[in-house]
Write a structure and sequence with these properties.
10% of the residues lie in helices and 45% in strands. The chain is built from three helices and 29 strands.
């Protein structure tokens, strides 16, 4: 209780100034926006005006359906700023009609004390784009836009909105500090290609709380230089689970530390929680302080995975082990059902074995109709094991 109170006070205090001031409201319909017309210019104009305001401002997109070709919204802002989206904002389904092919669909950069709210929907209309996505095998593939791209945000909250059917990742949060995603909904079919829910990198003190994410790739993917990330009470599925990485390809990648995934539920996902590093790759960063606790797996493949031989589509060389060190890992109170015979896979690097790994209170059942020996896989790791072990943890260790 004390911890929750401290967190609440810490988070709420920066926003008290917002409510203490008179708020200037910009309703886009009173600033020239018309149903059926592109609202991008109106939104850009009122955004610039709101950023210059010395008192708190709120931009309102009312209920209804609104077409937005593209938006690139930059700060800095002088006072707290809120974008309240009550309606459905829709992209053009034709990727060729995106005005600037190098930009994302909606980008918000360099703002402080920013709020995105309103209960509305950002519909990326991605169905046709997914058919064209061959980036897993074509290095020169067409760049597809992210629905919501947040960069260089500070002390901000994204709450009570939905991103739907993005052509690429739904959301990224890059180079940001103290940002919370609260009651955030992400929805796309399980076969939508490369539609990560939230990608977080080079960020600190980010929180994803009380959210529902169902998509065709990672529900949440975590990139390098991420620290103090808290993911709690998130429902993930369909999707590929919650992943740290993949990492290793870029020699400039920086350490990751303090990743907390707690009280989350995975349903029908192709992984639960996962760490991915490439073999035969130059990066030598350190991944530490991973805490996967109080997780429920419902018919999940590979509930817990550390994969330091990550090589999708067999497009890499496995001759040399990963140079990334993984340490200080806790896996605690994981229960539910697995449809793969390996409940836990700890495939660590031969050159830098995992250490300080603790696993406790595992209670997973195998539910695949194909009979198999339900087990765990452990390579280059000697975890400390406590409490219930179903199945036995590292009964055989490579």
């Amino acid at each position: 209780m004390a911890t929750k109170l401290i967190f609440s006070v810490f988070f709420v205090l920066p926003f008290l100034a917002y409510y203490a001031q008179a708020v200037t409201v910009y309703d886009i319909t009173k600033c020239g926006a018309k149903p059926g017309a592109d609202i991008s210019q109106v939104l850009s104009t009122v955004w610039k005006e709101a950023c210059q305001a010395t008192n708190a401002s709120k931009i309102v997109i009312p209920k209804g359906r609104w077409f937005l070709s593209q938006a690139r919204l930059h700060g800095p802002n002088k006072s707290p700023l809120e974008l309240e989206v009550r309606g459905t904002v829709e992209a053009d389904p034709d990727i060729n009609k995106l005005p600037n092919k190098n930009w994302e669909w909606i980008t918000i950069n360099y703002v402080n004390f920013f709020t995105l709210s309103g209960g509305g929907v950002f519909d990326g209309k991605g169905h046709d784009a997914w058919k064209r996505n061959d980036c897993h095998k074509n290095k020169n593939c067409v760049k597809l836009p992210i629905n919501l791209s947040f960069n260089f945000l500070n002390n901000s909250i994204i709450k009570d909105v939905t991103t739907k059917d993005s052509k690429n990742f739904h959301t990224n949060c890059i180079a940001s500090h103290n940002v919370t995603f609260l009651r955030y909904t992400i929805t796309a079919p399980g076969d939508s290609v490369n539609t990560d829910g939230i990608h977080i990198a080079r960020a600190s003190m980010v929180k994803v709380l009380d959210s529902n994410i169902g998509t065709g790739d990672d529900c949440i993917s975590i990139g390098d230089e991420t620290t103090d990330l808290h993911i709690e009470n998130v429902n993930c599925g369909p999707g590929h689970g919650i992943s740290v990485g993949s990492m290793g390809k870029n020699p400039a990648e920086k350490d990751v530390s303090g990743i907390y995934v707690k009280n989350c539920t995975f349903t029908g996902t192709s992984n639960g929680v996962r760490v991915k590093t490439w073999p035969s790759a130059p990066a030598t960063l350190r991944i530490s302080g991973l805490h996967f606790e109080d997780l429920v797996m419902n018919n999940v493949s590979n509930p817990v995975v550390i994969d330091q031989q990550y090589c999708p589509w067999n497009l890499c060389d496995k001759a040399k082990p990963s140079l990334i060190k993984i340490t200080e890992v806790t896996v605690k109170n994981v229960k539910g059902t697995s449809n793969t015979k390996e409940a836990i896979i700890l495939s660590c690097s031969a050159s830098k074995p995992c250490d300080n790994v603790e696993i406790s209170d595992i209670d997973l059942l195998y539910v695949n109709p194909i009979p198999a020996n339900f087990t765990t896989v452990c390579e280059n790791v000697k975890p400390r094991v406590f409490g219930k072990q179903n199945p036995p943890i590292c009964a055989t260790t490579a």
